[in-house]
Every structure is written in structure tokens, then in C-alpha cells.
Amino acid sequence: MNSSENNVITGLQWGNEGKKKLTDFFANRSEAIVRFNGSSSGGHPINAGGESFTLDYLPCGIHHDGKLCVIAAGTALDLDKAADEIVALKNAGVLKARLHISERCPLILDFHKKQELLEARAMYRNMGWLMNERGYGAALSDMYGALGVTAGDLLHPLVLREKIKHVMKIKNELFLKVFNEAPVEPNAICDEILKKAEALLPYVSPVEGLIAKAVADNAGVLFEGCDGSMNDAQCGLYPSLAPGRRSAAEVFLSCGLRHNTSLRVIGAAKAYCAKSGDGPFITEEKSTVGAFLRARGGEFNELTGEQRRTGWLDLPALAYSVRANSADVLALTKLDALTGIDELKLCTAYRIDGKEVTAGDITAEEAARAVPVYETLEGWKEELQGCADFSRLPRQTQSYIRFIEEYVGLRVIWAGLGRQWGNALYASEER
């Protein structure tokens, strides 16, 4: 990879595709790193100055001198978490990159978290996702409803105070009359917001010009995506979705880039499938194979410990997501989790109401009735860590990768071969 390449990393499945190690790999080869969508990343570990830090918002590369790190407008910021991250890294002396936060970033505030939790309890909704990113949906709803608070508002305390009074007049009606909860005093909320904002204020500014210049100068920009596009409000199976946009197209809107900007989209997918929460999951395995994949792949929610649902790789869904994201190449993560399975299945089509369907863009109702059609390949017994190039992989592993490549029509240029950072295979498209 040349340092001048501009790459987008986006998830092609339901999130938790193992993008953290992939992002680290490419961030070390990039001069600028931009978070462009989503909210909390679910905890990205870094090691700096002899200490370990877990980041939900600050981009990869934040601990490297000279790199440009940007949080773009498509990222909703939990004010508490973002402020705490900045303070922790500054106090440790490891916030070394040039950090810029878009003034257009929506803010997730305490009353958003309260609202979302109350609504979830009232509707008996699944709480797993809410515990990950509590307040995100309510904050986005406020942005679309002209009630949103942005990072730029923090620069104007008097305007912010008036905005909070207006917002809380509406929110307190909701809390009191619908949920029988005590109203919240707006001045107290604003005081707390401004206190937390002190950590962010030095970094809040317009960022579109910085990003456009870095791209135009061929500086080597990495656009770091959050979650997976099958959870995208437009691409996924409604209503089992997450708020906001999770596809690579958000790069252009979030960062203010021209739509003909030359970017290479790296689509990340697990070598199998895993999904949190409810909703259709056509290739789900409730057998011992599913439990094996869960254990080998570490498929547990980092915050709640909730088990993720697991199953075989769904190729029609993957091909659909490749098209929706205009992916150029593939990164195949957690390939090592398949080691030890005698026969590996790959879903190549669905049988719906007696008809075989290969298109991945089906409705939730069709997905609930779909039966997977599988191709079976021979598995492998060898552990994959330490395989420095494609030719050193077991013959069966090579066949598995090639089958995926032929189905979706893209090359696999990176493969995760273990949980440690160095356990990965990187190859060119010309392999």
C-alpha cells in the first residue's frame, strides 16, 4: 500500500466485523484518519506511553505525532465519553496527533440517554443495543426534528443555554406526562454540559477544508467506519436496524467531499456471520457449530456480556452489501475461528416459498421465511497464526477464500488470522 492511497473501511455485515485490528493496520500506513459515521465504536484498544486505553470516539492514530485525526459531522458524540477520552489521553501525554472535531457533530447528552431508556422500558424493547450506544437514537431524532445540539453550540454558551431551555421544555413534557418522571432543570443541565465541554472546545472547528486538502494532497487518508451496513437505516432489514447511516456513502456527506473523489472502499466481513439482537438471521446456527464459532470468535457483547447469534457466511447478503457500499476490495476477518470444523458451509442462495433466490436485497418478511441453500467445502485443522502470505495458508483455507472472491467478484487483500495485532495476512489485489 502506498501512503498516498485514500481508503474507506466499512463493515459489510451487522457490525462487530473485527474492524479494529484492520483499522489499526491501515491507520499506521496513513497520514490522516477520519471517523465519519456512527457513534461509539464499541471500544477500540490502543497502547501508548506504556499504558492501555480504550477509545470509543477518538480516531486510530491519535497517539502518533504528526498525524491528522478528524471526527467528521456524521459521528454523533457522547459528550461525557468523548470528553473523558480526551482528558485521559492528555493527562497521560499521549494525545499527540492534530485533533479536529466537526462543529456539526450531533451531541448525545444525558437527557437523550434518559429518554431512550424510558422509551425502551415502556415498549419492552431489547436492551442490548441500547446499553452499547444509549441516547444515540434520541439524539439523531432531535437533529431531524430541529431540536439537536451540536459540538459547534458549545462555542456559544449564551446561545446554547437558550437552546437547552427550549429543548427541555419539550422533553420535560414527555418525561412528566408520558413517563411520570420528574422534570429536569435546564440551567443545571447546561452548566454540566459547559463543564464537560471544556475538554472539547480547543478542537471544535470546521473540518471539511482540512479533509478535502488532505485528500487533494494525496496525504493518505483513512476514513474509519463504525458498525455494519446491514444495520444501516436504508440498507438493512427494517425494523431490525440501528439509527443513522452505516454505509460507505456517508463519507461524502459527512466529510463534505465531492462524490467523484477517488477513494478505495475496503469492505470488512467476518469469515462467518454474527449478529446482535433480534430480527431475521437466515444462516443462524443454533447447533454446536454456532457455539463453537461464538467461543472461537469471541462473539460476546463487550459491555453486557450478551452472546451474539452466529452462523455460516451469507454470500447473497455479502454481495448485496458489496454493491451497496461500492466496495473495491475485501478484508476477511476472524478466518482463524473456522479452524477445526470438518465441513464448512457457505450460503449461496435462499429458498423462499419454493423459489431459489440469489439476490440479497430481500424484505424482512421474505428473510423470515427464507431457507439457506449451502455449498459445502472441506475444512482445515491447522492454526493460521504466522502465515505470512497467501501461499502458506492451508489448501482448504485458500479454497475458502477463493470461493468467496469468485462469488462477490472482489479480491481479499487482508485476512485476520488471530486476535493479536500482528496476526494478519496482507496481499495486493494482484495476488
Can you characterise this structure?
48% of the residues are buried. The strands form five sheets. A ten-stranded mixed β-sheet has the order 9-7-5-2-10-1-11-15-19-20, with helices on both faces. The longest helix is centred in the middle third of the chain and has 22 residues, at 157-178. With 431 residues, the protein is of the alpha/beta class. Strand 19 (412-416) and strand 20 form a beta hairpin. 33% of the residues lie in helices and 21% in strands. Helix 3 (110-123) crosses helix 5 and helix 6 crosses helix 7. It is built from 13 helices and 20 strands.
Condensed summary:
This protein has helices at 19-27, 79-92, 110-123, 128-132, 136-144, 157-178, 186-197, 208-216, 250-255, 288-297, 315-325, 364-369, 395-408; strands at 7-11, 32-35, 44-48, 51-55, 68-71, 77-78, 98-102, 107-108, 204-205, 221-228, 264-270, 273-275, 309-311, 313-314, 329-333, 343-352, 355-357, 371-378, 412-416, 424-426.
